[in-house]
Design goal:
The protein has helices at residues 44-47, 265-270; strands at 4-8, 11-16, 22-28, 36-37, 57-60, 71-74, 77-80, 102-106, 110-116, 126-134, 138-147, 153-154, 158-164, 170-173, 177-181, 187-192, 203-204, 210-215, 220-225, 230-236, 242-247, 253-259, 280-281, 286-297. It is mainly beta and 298 residues long. The strands form 5 sheets. Strands 8-9-10-11-24-20-19-14-17 form a 9-stranded antiparallel beta sheet, with no helix packed on it. Strands 5-13-22-21-18-15-16 form a 7-stranded antiparallel beta sheet, with no helix packed on it. Strand 8 and strand 9 (110-116) form a beta hairpin. The longest helix has 6 residues, at 265-270. It starts with a strand and ends with a strand.
Length: 298
Amino acid sequence: MDLLRLRAGRLAVDLAPHAGGSIARFAIEEKGRLPIDLLRPTDPDALTLGSGKDTACYPLVPFSNRIADGRLIVEGRDIYMRPNTPGFKHPIHGDGWHRPWLVERSNDTDADLLYVHDRQGWPFPYRARQSFRLTEDGLTVGISVQSTDPSPVPAGIGLHPYFVRDEDTTLALNLKRVWLADADVLPTTRVDIPPRWDFSTPRKVSNTVLDNCFDGWDGQAVITWPHRRVRMDIEASPVFGHVVIYTPEARPYFCVEPVSHANNGFALHALGVEDVGYRLLANGDRLSGEVAFRVSTL
């Protein structure tokens, strides 16, 4: 259960390769001052479970969010997957967050992790990689999935960070549309952004309860913690044209998840819905992107 500890200037990142290739901690550490957590810190007991479920951030490969009833339609074939998480009716968030990752390379500021999938869960083999680069200004996370199946298969990528939340924490980002969801948090109808979910100007996170996927995202977001006097600028590669915003009620965290496709996007594509981020990878093809989390003082 050894952690990889990255340090650059005042920024500190702890990685847990054994627990879903996750980030266990991302914080500001300055001599003579209490640490300032940017992502929710991971309870040490959670790391013993070998899953990224209760960590600060975990990878989403080879898909994001839920696949309704575990049904995949691939090249005209119906393939069914079992639920992969207790308490969830539908398979969720892929395999990587439940499995150990190998450390390919690491030093004081960088680390590269590898996960090789063996068809347990997602029914197709693939290789996934994460790269972590910490500088004095922030953390950049690269993530990729490469198909190793002889036939073309769908795939997606994403990150699931849990940001700390104060009463005055604000979020700002530009979005075009949102998927309304049913009781199982599966998308039902895509609509223009209603005023109550418009984050084009900074909005307090505590004023909104959300668990929805948005599209038309330009990859830019700003989180501010006025009480902590900290600002974070997020910049994601164009592959992340969708973002899931999760703001649960009365929790000390919230999520802004850069993802490559809509929730249940593979099924939506099979129904003829456009602009859901569907990608089909041939053997050897790779889907990849980066997300930068830049930290500054207010």
